[in-house]
């Protein structure tokens, strides 16, 4: 079962995954959330570290203590840093989530840890109910854990106040969901432009980026069509373009092919593979789809809320 992500501030599902209806609460992009450079000493809402001119953090995030220390026992999902010394973009440490409904408790995640490096496409696989959506919601700052930490591009996601999380979800993380989440009354181009409007990107730059993104996903001829005039695969392409609008560092995709036939699903997975390369983002994709599993750089397998060694997947016919 896939659950809609909830906004911790309201407890309700956002109207669109990209945070489209959220009013900007802070100065416009690129005055963006500051990276956490002093995780150990800083108070949650006082980070004011330098950003690049384009608003992205000036340096890689800090290595969270204990995430990759020498002598750690190898754990499923905990990657060794690449030889070039690149810092991980995502650091997840001992993440724990318990859902409580009256007296009933469901432990959805049990001390999950992993890292993801820039440019990596990671598939998160597991049976229904294994915790994939929960994990992505916590990494994307859509929900709060009961324990553990998440750092994305140096931002301490699990310690940031909601106002900063809104900015993080707008500027640093792009979301793609199974149900596309497009705004029905807007054209494809307008949907892709929504995150840039929220970031107050200048109109000319916005229009240019919309055109570039729609061309990248093969929909330049459909830019004026509304979602209901597009196929499911085309709608998901628009959603991918929208997720990339503000040049995120991380793409979070929850079952992006769940509503598509296998051939269309494969095309979407190939698109995701291509955009991870061309845009240089890191992608975390929850999926049951063997098409993506074979395209991923790495597979993390969840079982009852914990990582287990990934089972091999047979290559899919083209
Ligand atoms: N809001 C919630 N309240 C109570 N239990 C929940 C809630 N969300 C998820 N769960 C439970 O937590 C566990 C993990 O759910 P989750 O949706 O993360 O799994 P999943 O792997 O994404 O499943 P699927 O592949 O079906 O989407 C399941 O047992 C689920 O029933």
Automatic annotation (TrEMBL):
InterPro entries: AAA+_ATPase, ABC_transporter-like_ATP-bd, ABC_transporter-like_CS, ABC_transpr_LolD-like, MacB-like_ATP-bd, P-loop_NTPase. PROSITE patterns: ABC_TRANSPORTER_1 (PS00211), ABC_TRANSPORTER_2 (PS50893). Residues 1-86 are annotated as: Disordered. Signal peptide: none annotated. It comes from the Bacteria. One of its GO terms (cellular component) is plasma membrane. GO terms for molecular function: ATP binding; ATP hydrolysis activity; transmembrane transporter activity. CDD domains: ABC_MJ0796_LolCDE_FtsE. Residues 20-30 have a biased composition (Pro residues). Residues 90-318 form the ABC transporter domain. Keywords: ATP-binding, Nucleotide-binding, Transport. Pfam families: ABC_tran. This is ABC transporter domain-containing protein. The lineage of its organism: Bacteria, Bacillati, Actinomycetota, Actinomycetes, Streptosporangiales.
């Amino acid at each position: 079962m896939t659950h809609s992500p909830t906004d911790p501030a309201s407890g309700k599902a956002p109207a669109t995954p990209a945070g489209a209806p959220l009013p900007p609460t802070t100065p416009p992009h690129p005055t963006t959330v500051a990276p956490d450079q002093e995780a150990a000493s800083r108070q949650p809402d006082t980070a004011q570290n330098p950003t690049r001119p384009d608003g992205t953090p000036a340096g890689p995030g800090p290595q969270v203590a204990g995430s990759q220390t020498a002598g750690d026992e190898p754990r499923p999902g905990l990657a060794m840093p690449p030889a070039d010394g690149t810092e991980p973009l995502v650091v997840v440490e001992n993440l724990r989530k318990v859902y409580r409904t009256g007296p009933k408790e469901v432990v959805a995640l049990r001390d999950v840890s992993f890292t993801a490096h820039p440019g990596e496409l990671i598939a998160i696989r597991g049976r229904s109910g294994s915790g994939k959506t929960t994990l992505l919601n916590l990494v994307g700052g859509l929900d709060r854990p009961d324990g553990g930490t998440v750092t994305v591009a140096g931002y301490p996601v699990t310690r940031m106040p909601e106002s900063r999380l809104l900015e993080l979800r707008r500027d640093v993380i792009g979301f793609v969901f199974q149900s596309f989440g497009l705004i029905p009354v807007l054209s494809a181009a307008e949907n892709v432009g929504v995150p840039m409007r929220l970031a107050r990107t200048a109109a000319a730059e916005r229009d240019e980026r919309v055109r570039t993104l729609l061309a990248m996903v093969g929909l330049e001829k459909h830019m004026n069509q509304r979602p209901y005039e597009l196929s499911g695969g085309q709608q998901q392409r628009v959603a991918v373009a929208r997720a990339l609008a503000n040049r995120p560092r991380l793409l979070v995709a929850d079952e992006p092919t769940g509503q598509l036939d296998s051939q269309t699903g494969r095309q979407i997975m190939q698109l995701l593979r291509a955009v991870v390369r061309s845009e240089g983002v890191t992608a975390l994709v929850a999926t049951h789809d063997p098409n993506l599993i074979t395209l991923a750089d790495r597979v993390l397998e969840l079982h009852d809320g914990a990582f287990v060694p990934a089972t091999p997947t047979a290559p899919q016919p083209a």
